[in-house]
Amino acid sequence: MKRVGVIGLGKMGILHAGIVNQLPNSRIQAVCEKEKLVEEIAKKLLPKGIQFYDDHVEMATKEDLDAVFITTPIESHTAIIVDLAKVKPDLSLFVEKPLAASGSLAKTACDAVGNLHAEHMVGFQKRYSPLFMEAKRMIDLKSIGELMFFRAYLYSSDVLREGKSWRFKNGTGGVLLDLAPHLLDLLLWFFGDVQSVSGARRRMYSKSVDDYTHACFEFESGLTGHMDASWSVRGYRLPEIAIEIYGKDGTMTLTDDELKIAYATAEGKMRSFNNQSFNTSVPFLLANPEYTVEDQTFLDSIDKKSHPTPDFSEAAKVNFLIDRIQAATQQ
After folding, report:
1. How far from each other are the two terminal CA atoms of the chain, in whole angstroms?
2. Domain 2-124+288-307 annotated CATH 3.40.50.720
3. pTM confidence score
4. Which of 105, 220, 233, 270 has its CA 20 to 30 A from that of 178?
5. Number of alpha carbons in the 13 Å side-chain half-sphere of residue 27
6. Are the CB atoms for 109 and 77 separated by under 8 Å?
7. Containing H/E element for 181?
8. Contact 110, 312 (CB under 8 A)
9. What is the pLDDT of residues 46-59, one digit of tens each?
């Protein structure tokens, strides 16, 4: 039975706590939450026996934990990782995306776990969606031939007026750091490392951070394409990803709900998959199945020492790419 701690009881902290506590091989033993009101509400809702702390070092020191989920605001991730790696080097760490607030802080996080006698993982759950896994498999098989170019977007309707939460503060990176990492991680996973970057950023509703980013990429393979990311597009109750990939032998269109492959043959052959095309049964369903698969993969890796993906070093590539986009789009 894995004994698990959670640091931060925001939306993602509650989600992971709920999943972990229902999996057959784990339970939440401790929670670290600095907001007293949130702590009091959590004590009424969570199972009895969970220990509460307002200091993550104290929690890691006093509790005999196998793993900790870090689900605090992005700018706090690195300091927490460094602290935990120091006081308990055999503690496995799961961090909600992205790994850190900048490339340099991501490197610090990677250095901190360099001698960790445990596993580490970052929560890019789209890698555990059967549709995105199938798309990755088909790309690796060159099912649409040599790739020529792509276009992609990630939109949501989260910011349609100026806000006051942490994500609107200067230096937090705006949509590029908060929303775009999911898409950037997929592009890196699908296509490899990026050679060059250009683009533009814009503030529409926010005064201190960007609401829109357009980035053009040339990958080391020679593939080119672009992405648009905005949290200020009306009509997207939930964030939506779409990626169109054009190859010499066909076209692949991928969204959260469907994968279509149109082959450039005389018959115009088409293959189509949706989430129901795959076995997505999980031990406990609280949100999309990929969240449960992701958490189970991380927890299973502790005994197997199987190094779950993406680990910190792979996830740090997203931060390095964000830094390059920001440098290439200076305002």
Report:
1. 51
2. yes
3. 0.94
4. 220
5. 9
6. yes
7. helix 181-191
8. yes
9. 778 899 999 999 99
